[in-house]
Write a structure and sequence with these properties.
With 310 residues, the protein is an alpha/beta fold. It is 43% helix and 14% strand. The chain has an eight-stranded parallel beta sheet. It binds magnesium ion (MG).
């Protein structure tokens, strides 16, 4: 029997650009402060209104993000960025205090549905990570800082395989109760498939509104765009992506990580869904940063756009 998909597509979607933080943090080459600032400004010029700019983590652990204070000092009053939110990732209350000093207005906190992943990534169990997050969010609330929550390994974990939906629900509820404005669901190892995506979204929608979620897919197995489409069909309209697919995949050397913003641009715009992105300007921003890290983008659309102009 004929079924009719794509009959209730939205007119527009929201894209959260994570290249400067999630992307560059996972690249080996350390980018200079000037180049980061230029990258962020070019992304804003391309129409991206929410950009994950940096993180306030320990510089000895993540040297790529050691200049977060200087970055904010230079960008926070930039007239070209007055309509752009610059998010900073904050791991704990120490980082939160530094973020406050830097003038950050939007933060992101993170945990995972897997105890093993959390232990390896942030040296804490899930419950311990939620305690840290709670402290961060108290400071955020007291200072009118908007917070988004990231949940990693929602669709699978490199150490535990399938992760628990009940754990996912518990963490989501905790973050909501602590005042986060939204939760971004991460397919950390790029293992999700469209059926699983629809099942997870349906499961969460029993207790939470769809607009509480953003989807954060990785293209490690080439499934990110299919998973975005499945989410869109379920009614999700917010997606994270990284210019040029910056970031790679720490669990599969040489493989893709974050889905490329350019690929999402084409998926949406080719179906008449607005993204607010000027693709020529985005390609320029991406080419510029790629020239600094000396590798190619995995984005198929970007390759076609460069050679054919569409
Ligand atoms: Mg990512």
């Amino acid at each position: 029997m004929l079924s009719k998909p794509f009959r209730n597509l939205p007119k527009k979607v929201r894209i959260v650009e994570v290249g400067p933080r999630d992307g560059l943090q996972n690249e080996k080459t350390i980018i200079s402060l000037e180049d980061k600032i230029q990258f962020i400004k070019l992304l804003a010029k391309a129409g991206l209104r929410e950009i994950e700019a940096t993180s306030f983590v320990r510089a000895d652990k993540i040297p790529q993000m050691a200049d977060s204070l200087l970055l904010y000092q230079q960008l926070k009053n930039d007239p070209d960025l007055k309509n752009t939110s610059l998010l900073a990732l904050v791991p704990n209350s120490e980082g939160m205090k530094r973020a406050l000093d830097a003038g950050v207005k939007d933060i992101a906190i993170f945990t995972s549905t897997s105890n093993s992943f959390n232990q390896k990534n942030i040296n804490a169990t899930i419950d311990e990570s939620l305690e840290r997050i709670k402290e961060v969010l108290v400071i955020a609330r007291n200072n009118n800082i908007r917070a988004r929550g990231y949940i990693s390994t929602v669709f699978g974990c490199p150490y535990e395989g399938k992760t628990s939906l009940d754990e996912l629900k518990k963490i989501t509820q905790f973050l909501k109760d602590q005042g986060v404005s939204e939760v971004s669901l991460g397919d950390t190892i790029g293992i999700a498939n469209p059926l699983q995506v629809s099942e997870v979204v349906e499961f969460l929608n029993r207790d939470f509104a769809l607009d509480f979620f953003s989807m954060h897919f990785h293209d490690t197995r080439g499934m990110a765009v299919a998973n975005v489409l499945a989410s869109l069909e379920m009614g999700i309209t917010s997606f994270d992506s990284s210019a040029g697919g910056l970031g790679g995949c720490p669990y599969a050397v040489g493989a893709s990580g974050n889905v490329a913003t350019e690929d999402l641009y084409f998926l949406f715009e080719s179906m008449g869904i607005q993204t607010g992105i000027d693709i020529g300007k985005l390609a320029l921003a991406t080419e510029n940063i790629l020239s600094k890290i000396n590798h190619e983008s995995p984005s198929k659309f970007l390759k076609a756009f460069k050679s054919q102009g569409f």
